[in-house]
Amino acid sequence: MIKDILKILENDARTTSKQIAAMTGTPSAEVAKLIKQAEKDRTILKYKTVINWEKVGEEQVWALIEVKITPQRDVGFDSIAERIYRFPQARTVYLVSGTYDLLVLVMGKTEHEVANFVSQKLAPIEGVQGTITHFMLKRYKEDGEILEGKEEVKRQPIIL
Amino acid sequence: MSTKSRGQQRKSLISQQVKRIPPSGIRRFFDLLASIEGVISLGVGEPDFATPWHIREAAIFSLEKGYTMYTSNLGMLELRQELSRYLKDNYNLAYDPDSELLITVGVSEALDLAMRAILNPGDEVIMPDPCYVSYSPCVVLAGGIPIMVPTNQENNFEISPADIEARVTSKTKAILIGYPANPTGAVMTRDKLSQIAEIARRHQLLVISDEIYAKLVYGVEHTCFATLPGMKESTILLGGFSKAYAMTGWRIGYAAANKEVTASLTKIHQYTMLCASVMGQVAAIEALKSGEDSIAEMAEQYNRRRLVIVEGLNDIGLSCFEPRGAFYAFPSIKGTGMTSEEFSERLLIEEKVAVVAGTAFGQCGEGYVRCCYATSLADIEEALTRMKRFVDKHKKV
């Protein structure tokens, strides 16, 4: 049941307990209780909005940083990852397989700000062997949503 | 000269057969709808999803590779093989792709072929009322006589085996059913279908089972009629890709039947249609190969909307039995004292919500309207708000 509720909320965080109750055939009070519980145990981390900032002329600079690190005894990659993810500039941090180890998504107001963060904060961390920075040029799709030219389904108004 | 010809009775150029089919009952409603802006339509009988991208992409690729020719009359071999595998996997039915499967231009063509292949003038075909709009005309066009079996909300719009049996005569050739049902959303249990199979066996009738909505059932299992004991030989199973795979515009359906019937269907198909479009067939191959996930995702969304609309309709006083299949709710509007046609026209004019009068699907649809929930939740909720206002205004206490 909680999985059904989470799927609905992941798709639209504004869906009310009453609506979810109708969609799943569960009493509204039960839905509210399960959501509370999921918030408490951090199954639900937060509710956010996916925004196309370009629409309001807001410039954001995003970069994907490949980070190669030397794993440390006992703690592996975790302790270096923690030193990185504690910086608020690092919006997303993943450990990945392949030619590098951490993928860090960094957001700043200007390219300069992002570059500074990488060269002065991220790269000098002990255990970081090297970084490659990819500045994001264009966002086509975000969280499953196509930003421009989303297709409309063209149906006849009545079909028997 | 002209005065002379004016005196003569003008000879009708239209066949009696065609004249016997009534014109669409909702033509006026169509015109009305076209004249109003800002309408929320619950009147659409198709998914609100575009065809899943992997299916479209496969068709685009095939065009680039030059798949633009006729196919075999039966349909592309690869599609028939995939379909055979699908029917085996889903129902454990073994249909020979070379002689027992025919790819058609939607279920609509398959139904027309079936009727033309089996009916002699005056043969009777028993079917539920209300039912999909083309059932009865297809029988009439093939020279047959449709025999309607009333169904209602009290029996969940399931056709009753006893009512079928009571209508069997020496002229009866076939029983035509379509569950999950358009317009009611009704699903029949295996037990009830078995009783129909028993009748078909006893009276040596064919059963034409339109199972286009087979993949859209909620919390119940779909029973394929051909899986009932002994029924594979005497069932013409009709299916297609339109509804579950959101492929209505591609027009690809199929008929699965015994060799003799399939050969007869194919005879008509090869002279009238030649073959279904190759692009559609290529898309259907991709749908069968890897469409299961997309279907499940869409069905999950329909189910949520189903629960919302059924609860909503009951809350506003339009009593609605729980539809377990397809994407239609079929609430009763009897509490308003209006006919179905009046209700749908006035709802459209006063609140700009389009629903289809139940009478479009047969006399027994009187007192009901069809609401399609294959539309966004936001639209469903807004439609329910408007319908509540409308019902409150017109409720007969």
Describe the protein's architecture and organization.
The complex is a heterodimer of chains A (160) and B (397). Chain A is an alpha+beta fold and 160 residues long. Chain A folds into two domains: 2-40; 53-137, Lrp/AsnC effector binding domain/regulation of amino acid metabolism (RAM) domain (Alpha-Beta Plaits), CATH 3.30.70. Chain A has helices at residues 2-11, 17-24, 28-40, 78-85, 111-122, and strands at residues 61-69, 90-95, 102-108, 128-135, 141-142, 145-146. In chain A, the strands form two sheets. In chain A, strands 2-3-1-4 form a four-stranded antiparallel sheet. The longest helix of chain A has 13 residues, at 28-40. In chain A, 14% of the residues are buried. The mean pLDDT of chain A is 93. Chain B is α/β, with parallel strands linked by helices and 397 residues long. Chain B has two domains: 2-51 and 294-391, Aspartate Aminotransferase, domain 1, CATH 3.90.1150.10; 69-291, Aspartate Aminotransferase, domain 2 (3-Layer(aba) Sandwich). Chain B is 42% helix and 12% strand. Chain B contains 14 helices and twelve strands. A seven-stranded mixed sheet of chain B has the order 2-8-7-6-5-3-4, with helices on both faces. In chain B, strand 3, helix 7 (135-141) and strand 4 (145-150) form a beta-alpha-beta unit. In chain B, helix 4 packs across helix 11 (278-290), helix 6 (106-118) packs across helix 10 (259-272) and helix 12 packs parallel to helix 14. Chain B is globular and about 60 Å long. The N and C termini of chain B lie far apart (66 Å). The model of chain B has no long low-confidence stretch (mean pLDDT 95). The A-B interface holds A 7-8, 19, 22-25, 151, 153, 155-160 and B 24, 26, 29-30, 33-34, 39, 41, 43-46, 48-50, 132-133, 300, 304-305, 307-308, 311-312, 354, 356, 360-361, 377, 381.
